[in-house]
Design goal:
The protein is of the alpha/beta class. The chain has twelve helices and 21 strands. The protein has helices at 12-20, 33-38, 50-54, 81-91, 102-106, 154-164, 184-191, 265-283, 310-313, 324-333, 342-351, 359-363, and strands at residues 2-3, 8-10, 26-29, 45-46, 72-75, 96-99, 110-114, 123-129, 134-141, 144-148, 167-172, 194-197, 208-209, 215-218, 221-227, 236-240, 244-248, 256-257, 290-293, 308-309, 370-371. The strands form four sheets. Strands 7-8-9-10-11-12-13 form a seven-stranded mixed β-sheet, covered by helices on one side. Strands 1-2-6-5-3-4 form a six-stranded mixed β-sheet. Strand 14 (215-218) and strand 15 form a beta hairpin. It is globular. It starts with a strand and ends with a strand.
Length: 372
């Protein structure tokens, strides 16, 4: 923890460590109800106090009942109003800290959990971007590893690989992302790994096209590329034997990918039809495959990977029981709000030049890539 005279503060990764610890901590979200409704820290307590705190009203939090003897971490959008809240709480004798960078910084918080596998011929780690719901993966065999859909800072993947004695030899993307800045090109450049993307003409930097049916070798195991257009035209899933299926933004555990981002109405309808056929193809695969999606609605700090078998996922999706025409109509009728700043994010991902300053602000907000 870092402490200044005015405001004791805590970093995002320090908060992650506190939340993973058995010792209790209260996360106090002081944003408006509207801001909190779109995304929040799981288990946080809420009081709509931002406006009066910014207005300088004294004693705004005096009547707030908090667990006795439990440290409090105040959270706002960017870490400014939470500093005011922290000062008021400290004046009451409460051990309080302001989350540096607020929810914008929480967007970059992450942890890594192991996915148990029926066979132990390779190791699989799920790297979870806690505040954004993005899921990426390290797949390792022997001393080689591949990273799929990297969405956090490159040093995090390098650190995890080094801890396990792995060399990153492949960096793979399932598609061109619209909700977060891709770290794939930067990670490949930094590690010397081969950068593999689905065949397309969207990006303007060199990469190794991964053709449908192609098998990528990682140590003694292989990942097979499966074309699954719909969310985007280039969307690709990766299958490892009868154990795992990396579905990107095509299939989630409780929903499917939206087909409308960066598309007009006619293109969205065409992509929705492709999505229906792609999901039909995935439905024909062995039900024992573990579905490893690119996103989750919420991530609890419980050290449990977000994964279910294909046979468990498919029966819960009512959309899959429709005809193609009905599926297309229903999907287009359920389109949620677009991810914040998605046009700018897509532009950076296609150019391969992430912004130098404050990527967290550009990426802040829920991922919104799914249709339930």
């Amino acid at each position: 923890m870092t402490t200044s005279i005015a405001t004791p503060s805590i970093s995002v990764q320090e908060l992650v460590s506190m939340l993973e610890s058995p010792d209790p901590v209260t996360v106090l979200d002081i944003r408006s109800r509207e801001d909190r409704a779109s995304w929040s820290i799981p288990g946080s307590m809420h009081v709509d106090a931002g406006d009066p705190l910014r207005a300088g009203e004294p004693g705004v939090l005096d009547q707030l009942v908090l667990p006795a003897g439990v440290p409090v971490v105040a959270v706002c959008a960017a870490g400014n109003t939470s500093a005011i809240a922290t000062e008021q709480l400290r004046a009451r004798g409460i051990e309080a800290y302001s989350l540096t960078g607020g929810m914008n910084a929480w967007s970059l918080a992450w942890d890594a959990v192991e996915v148990p596998l029926p066979q132990a011929d390779f190791t699989l780690l799920q790297v979870r971007r806690l505040g954004k719901g993005c899921l990426s993966y390290l797949v390792a065999s022997g001393d080689e590893a591949a990273v799929i859909d990297p969405s956090i800072e490159t040093d995090a993947y390098i650190q995890v690989a080094e801890q396990h004695g792995w060399t990153i030899t492949w960096v793979l993307e399932t598609h061109i992302h619209a909700d977060h800045l891709s770290r794939a090109r930067a990670l490949a450049d930094k590690t010397g790994a081969t950068l593999g993307l689905p065949p397309q003409r969207r990006v303007s930097f060199p990469f190794q096209p991964i053709e449908p049916g192609e098998r990528i070798r990682i140590g003694e195991v292989g990942l097979e590329a499966i074309s699954t257009p719909g969310h985007t035209l280039e969307s690709t899933s990766y299958r490892f034997g009868d154990q795992a299926l990396f579905t990107g933004d095509t299939l989630f555990l409780t929903s499917v990918g939206r087909p409308d981002l960066e598309a007009n109405a006619a293109e969205a309808r065409k992509r929705a039809a492709f999505l229906y056929r792609s999901l039909g193809h995935l439905s024909s695969l062995p039900g024992t495959l573990l579905v490893l999606p690119g996103h989750a609605d919420a991530i609890a700090l419980d050290n449990r990977p977000i994964v279910r078998s294909l046979s468990d996922v498919l029966p819960t999706l009512d959309l899959l029981r429709l005809s193609e025409t009905a599926f297309v109509d229903e999907v287009l009728a359920r389109i949620p709000p677009t991810p914040p700043n998605h046009h700018e994010i897509v532009h950076h991902n296609e150019q391969g030049d992430p912004p130098v300053d404050d990527p967290a602000s550009l990426e802040a907000g829920a991922n919104r890539c799914a249709i339930a």
